[in-house]
Amino acid sequence: MSKGPGFFSDIGKKAKDLLTKDYSYDQKFTIATYSNAGVALTSTALKKGGLSTGDIGLQYKYNNNIIDVKVDTESNVSTTFTITEILPSTKVIASFKVPDYKSSKLDVQYSHDHATFTTTVALNQSPAVDITATLGTPSFAIGAEAGYETTLGTFVKYNAGVSVKNLDYDASIILADKGDSLRASYVHHLDNLKLNSCVAEISRRFSTNENTFTVGGSYALDPLTSVKARLSNHGKLGALLQHQLQPKSVLTLSSEFDTKALDKNPRFGLALALKP
């Protein structure tokens, strides 16, 4: 395990990744090239519904400092600077977008062996401020998150979470949406390499008395091929097949069926990422 309790966003992340990561019902193609000088060029094409979009990205990395620029088909330019050498144990991330400059923000992250802190400030005339803090160890962590809207002069978000994990399992409980929802998840690893895992997640929204229960898992068929599946109490069944064509190139096929309405057409997705 890594040192420190991790950031607040890491609480419940393992379960979320098993149930949602790489599930896509669009067509996506990505190709990337790298140079020894730390420059990476990426091109992505995405077909969602009947619309086709894409972007071109250029990234330069030097001593863990990163400059990332992306230009999409609508002429939006997004630039991100990641700097890790300003202060010890601190990372600063500044992102800007043109012409939508109101989405620009500054993110400061601090990591310690027993605590982590993050502050995110929107870079506009009425900045919103998000703050997170996590205390604990790699095995046990407790954290909180708050969002303050300077225009309204009030807190618009506050969440709290607890995480307990070791080599065999990862469990978490998160109280979110200003206390209106509670989500608990449990991941159990079936092997030491964590290639085969099962997961269960239950969430409740108190204002509507709605409960959602989802189970899933992942299984490695061989060193290059893995499958994932998930099923919710609402009858949505998702499945995913991922095959590594070469060390960094991956083909992903995914689908979703509504078991309570089999007359409806299932959804399918294809993603291909080619990297040297």
TrEMBL record:
Gene3D superfamilies according to UniProt: Porin (2.40.160.10)
Record keywords: Ion transport, Membrane, Porin, Transmembrane, Transmembrane beta strand, Transport
Sample GO molecular function, one term: porin activity
GO CC term, one of those recorded: pore complex
Entry superkingdom: Eukaryota
Location(s), subcellular: Membrane
Coiled coil: none
Pfam annotation, one family: Porin_3
Family that this chain belongs to: Belongs to the eukaryotic mitochondrial porin (TC 1.B.8.1) family.
Protein name per UniProt: Mitochondrial outer membrane protein porin 2-like
Organism field: Kingdonia uniflora
Lineage: Eukaryota, Viridiplantae, Streptophyta, Embryophyta, Tracheophyta
